[in-house]
Amino acid sequence: MDTTAYVFELLKIILPALIVAGSIFYLIQQYLDKEQQRRLIELRLQSTKETLPLRLQAYERVTLLLERITPNNLLVRLSSAGLTAPDYHRVLVSELRAEYEHNLSQQLYMSSEVWEQVKSAKEGILTMVNKAYHSLPAPQQARGTDLAKRILETIITDDADPVAQALHALKREAAGLF
Hints:
The longest helix is centred in the N-terminal third of the chain and has 68 residues, at 2-69. The N and C termini lie far apart (75 Å). The chain has a domain at 52-175. By secondary structure, the protein is an all-alpha fold. It has six helices and no strands. Helix 3 crosses helix 5. The protein has helices at 2-69, 71-77, 85-102, 112-134, 144-158, 162-175. Keywords: Membrane, Transmembrane, Transmembrane helix. It holds the Pfam family DUF7935.
């Protein structure tokens, strides 16, 4: 009976100690989990504070890209005076590609869907310029002004603006940042 009493006395001491130790372990674990969540939230907040201006700048630059490659703005910026149609065609295509390549890195800051629409807008304008050039009666003998007129006629008759959809998607995504 001594051993039974001894075991019982030992259990009376060990069992509450185990319960207290388990409770302390549980509370410490809960505290550490909450602390880790708090640190993650702080890191995300700090990251957002640093990347938000960069993302907004990227949206601004891509908006500027889209505005610069809009056929109306492109034709006004790149004068066709004194150029032949083939030369003007090369200038337009070169400028479109240069503008796009200059802003390629901005895709890091936006969704792939929006960037695909930007890319599609550029391709749509390239297609429009190429079709207008090839639709000239004698492209090799035509003047640059003839090509510019044909592009403007295409914009008016097709009533399709390849840039509008990309700009709308870009604005919608940028507004979602706030």
